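One example given next:
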Amino acid sequence: MSKRVQLALPETPLPSILSKMKKVAKKFKEVNLHGVPTLLQYYECCPPLDPEYNGFTVILRDQPVVYNKYHVELERYHKNCYKQGCRVVGQDTKVKSWLAGRAVQTRVADQGTTRIRVDNSDHELGLFIMPVFLNRVTHKQTVGIIELVTIVPKESYVEDFFQIHKLLKDEGLDSKGMGKTIKVHHKDLIVKFNLSISADFKDLQKEVTERFKTLKHKRYLIEYEDRDGNSLPIIRDAHLKACIKKSVSQESTVIKMSVKLAT
């Protein structure tokens, strides 16, 4: 269980972030008014009061909290989370099944389920967590965690991630999606690496050329293999996102790719 401490709530050191997150939440609600009943809530990550502790004070803020459609199960979940108060999460903190705490540690998106009891009945809810970063000159600073809670679990939250990621980008913020293992074959060599689901085509090219040095300054073609064994080209962002989306929906753990010199 994550470490709980009795802390006086610090005044947020990042007031502009909260105002940006309220805009993100408002736009998300507007776009998803007719979608699956969903709760969006935001955990703020602040430095702990003890400067020697390597971690974050994680606080569920009362704003922004939005429901595109009200459901008592979603409200009950939010209230249960809010009762937890401040938690201090470091790299070695045992967060168990608490996805928000896990996202603080891993700095990548994640999904899962939870159960909530209402009127003597158990209800399964879907959970999706994604970190929020502020771009600094030398690094991406973790400033918060977005949690989506859906009245029924979704098979994939990739579309939700892309939608919220764009809204964050519009506010000058960033995030990092769940990763996929990429297995790339070129000539007689095979390499594997992890690629975020939010990666663009340039990110993929960078990963490939870092591992196949001979491809630098050369024209080459990247293809991926679908479930039927067909080779499909990846030459722009849309192709890569379609490839990743299909892999997630099919619950594939590895995306197979090949690299050939352009003719």
Notes: The radius of gyration is 20 Å.
